[in-house]
Amino acid sequence: MRAGKIASLCLVLIVAAVGAVLSLLATSLPWLASMHPVLRLCLTFLGLATVSAAILLPLGTTLDRTVARLRSYIEATGTERRTATFWGPKWARPITRALIGAVEQFRQREQMLTNELREVQIRHRVSEAERRQIESVLHVLRDAVLVTNAFGDIVIVNEAAGRILGFDHTQALHQPLEQFVDDECLCQLINETAETANFADRRHVEHEISVPDGQGDKEQTLLFLVTLACLENHKREVGGVVTILHDLTRVREISQMKTDFVSKASHELRTPLSSIRAYVEMLVDGEATDEESRQEFYRIIQNETERLGRLIDNMLNISRIEAGIVQIERENVDIKHLITRAIDTLEPEASQKQITLNSKMAEVDLSVEGDCDMLFQVVLNLVSNAVKYTPAGGRVTVAADSDNLTRSVVVSVSDTGLGIPPDAIGKIFDKFYRVENYKRVAKGTGLGLSLCKHIVETLHHGQVGVESKLGMGSKFWVTIPMRYAGSQAA
Ligand code: ADP
What we know:
Blueprint: H1 3-25, H2 30-33, H3 37-75, H4 78-83, H5 93-140, E1 144-149, E2 154-157, H6 159-165, H7 177-180, H8 184-196, E3 202-212, E4 219-232, E5 238-247, H9 249-284, H10 291-323, E6 331-334, H11 335-352, E7 356-361, E8 367-370, H12 372-388, E9 395-403, E10 408-415, H13 422-425, H14 448-460, E11 463-469, E12 473-481, H15 486-489
Parallel strand pairs: 7-9
Antiparallel strand pairs: 1-2, 1-5, 3-4, 4-5, 6-8, 9-10, 10-12, 11-12
The structure holds adenosine-5'-diphosphate.
Adenosine-5'-diphosphate binds next to helix 12 and helix 14.
């Protein structure tokens, strides 16, 4: 049964009941008053119920039908509704029209809100994608990036920032800066930047931070260039601060190395140059009075010029290798042949010092893929050093063998010479390094071993090393891979 029918039925009952009660009270009507009260009650009730039912029930049914049509009209969608026309009893039309108008308005509003919601969802998805993109860019950056809002809470932070400042960047989002950044000076810099409210300029400050060195509990102090920028929000007030930390340590080291190189190089170049100038001046001034002195001066000038040439050649070779612009001629090089050539070259110098120069070469193929001239220079340098720093009567042995495990040829040059002081071992392959006490023993540039290391390690992907006991002698060794794996290694 529908609501209209139920309502009309209720109304029928109410009317009949009220009528029946009233009939009891109506004593002024003689024909009613003469009737027994129960009969009067029943008759009135039945009479009124029948009459009101005859009027109200059809009304209820019409109301139900109207409501049902109204509902189906409202529920109809799209073209279905556009083509539908609403009709109903005339008396109900003003109400239904008002209802339909309200529903239409509601529908339009709903449509508008649905469109707006869709737009917001799309915008949210786009900004979410952009946020993820920015996040991945930030996370691949080596520089630390930290953004705080106007309340000093961290709103953006990348992995590098967490690593450098010693916290888990995933935990720090929306947390107060001071809670995660222990570096008081950095926090102060960020707070000061926010206080200045200067949106036009950026602050650049050099700042040292102790960071874990990645090995155990040790810490290392790194120098950072801190760039701070104050952000403006839509109300033109301070919206936050962007902080970027750029590691300057390596740049500083390289710049220091360059400065050291230039000063050492100029110092080394000045020594032979001063000597040449002094002897030339003496010759010009006629201080060499006899032919023998003149010849002696010429010889010194020649030696110093050769030393100058060697120094410049070595410097150029090292810097070319370091810059990666050296093209090497890779060919099959017989190491045995190189050793024999080096021994032949240095034999006169060795025998002059009564030094025994011998070789021990394994009876196997000892050829490698490499640059013949450069590898010859390595062997020559090591044997020459051994002869130079071994006192008269000593012994120099050049040995060569193959290492099947690493597929390399191992060459070692052992001497019974001065040996290397323990504190100098670590610096022996550095540019211009010379053991102070040995400067009187032999002339040198301090570049030979550095060049050997570059040729072996950088150009041939081998290794160099030294073992030495002060006063007992030294053993320098190099390993050269038999097959060049440069293209894979590069
Ligand atoms: P240098 O031209 O001075 O020999 P190197 O770079 O070849 O330059 O060698 C650097 C320094 O290492 C030398 O000055 C010397 O003090 C030390 N050195 C090299 N080889 C030996 C060796 N066999 N025995 C002792 N000291 C050596």
